[in-house]
Amino acid sequence: MQVTETKSEGLKREYQVVLPAAELETRLATELDGIKGKVQLKGFRPGKVPVAHLRKVYGRSVMADVVQNAVNEANQKIVEDNKLKLALEPQVQMPEDKDAIEKALDAKGDLSFSIALEVMPSFDLVDLSDVSLTKQVVTASDEEVNETIERMASANRPFEDRPEGEAAQSGDRLVINFTGRIDGTPFEGGTGEDINLDLGSNTFIPGFEDQLLGAKAGDERLVKVTFPEAYGAEHLAGKEAEFDVTVKAVKAPGALTIDDELAKNFGMDSLDALKDAVRTTMGREYEAASRQKLKKGLLDALDSRYSFELPPSLVHQEFAAVWAQVEQDLKNRGKTFEDEDTTEEKAREEYRRIAERRVRLGLVLAQAGESADIKVSDDEVNQALIARVRQFPGQEQQVWDFYRKTPQALAELRAPLFEEKVVDHVLGQVKLVEEPVSKEALFADEDDAEDGKAKADAAKADTAEAAPAGESNPA
């Protein structure tokens, strides 16, 4: 086998591989001899089939295996001899001359093919000791804890039927049946029975609850509303609708009590234990938000410190994934690029920069993790898998089996675990300054942070699953 480098430009390499006819003949003969004792042909005793006859019957199929093995050997030889780290699988180009291919398959002519590669860029990890990052720290106050518990108590307060003939007031709970129509025709999801509706909660379509104020048990009312333009179900967005509503019961809210009994309803022994649990939960939420902002700051710092050529195919793949999400999001929201005050061309430029940033940071984090010999254990992956399985109650076994049988799916669980470990490792190389802030300050630029997250995520591990379109009901 003769291997010759024909191109070396940036991260692109091309090689010409020639397998002489004599070598093809030798490889074919070896393969045929290997199957001689395994095949059974009519008229021949096992192991006694002449090689010439085997060649006539199986020659082409065996030669196909010979060629594939030769391609695999060539790939391996190129990588090992040149100490290459590939960005993607090699691209093999067989000759277009059919006569040349036929002669090679008959071992009467040389087999010549090319292999195109893209290699990973080579770069050194930079010193980050002069990088200073601020970690915002929020401590849940007693007032915030009490407000949360008040909301919990309000959501779980008892309701009792109002006396017969008494009108519904804001804060009351109605039990209703409804049937919706658009242009006189009932629509899917527009019907409900025994639905609880808390007046003043603003959980139904704007205007729906207002038209039921003053209703009494047994009343039938016609409610006219307009679905919001941004309604989840596209076929209902912006449409006018009518609902025939029957009020089956009017219930007044009971006393709002915050005591040990309330805590027991939430599985706690006492009100103090409930407060501690709420405080702990709030602390986790604040810590998660703080880490997200800190991580973005770290990725921004890394992005400013590294500049190297990127494998074009990786960038293309990343851009394709990002762009598909952008287009799907616009479709789901019924928007256009003009609605977003941009053009498709400008949007493509912006998201290509995002794709390039993701690839660059992904390579940096990967090399940092490799350099530090960071590993993700099977136990850690199993814990992540268990957490994922719990998100699908009733389908646990199917989800578990899917991940266990799908290596790519398991890899998508492992990747974010690796990324977080590498981020922790890199954070250990910079100066961290903790800054106590208010909850409002932590979440003040939440919208910007979400946009920044989309642009800053270095790994493609966690892909947010698109939420299904809103159900077609008044909620």
UniProtKB/TrEMBL annotation:
Keywords: Cell cycle, Cell division, Chaperone, Cytoplasm, Isomerase, Rotamase
Bias type Basic and acidic residues, positions: 451-463
Reactions that this protein is recorded to catalyse: [protein]-peptidylproline (omega=180) = [protein]-peptidylproline (omega=0)
GO molecular function, one term: peptidyl-prolyl cis-trans isomerase activity
Keyword Isomerase attributed: yes
Domain PPIase FKBP-type: 171-266
Domain of life: Bacteria
One Pfam family per UniProt: FKBP_C
Keyword ATP-binding: no
EC class of the enzyme, as a word: isomerase
Family stated for the protein in its record: Belongs to the FKBP-type PPIase family. Tig subfamily.
UniProt-listed NCBIfam families: tig (TIGR00115)
Protein purpose: Involved in protein export. Acts as a chaperone by maintaining the newly synthesized protein in an open conformation. Functions as a peptidyl-prolyl cis-trans isomerase.
Protein name, UniProt field: Trigger factor
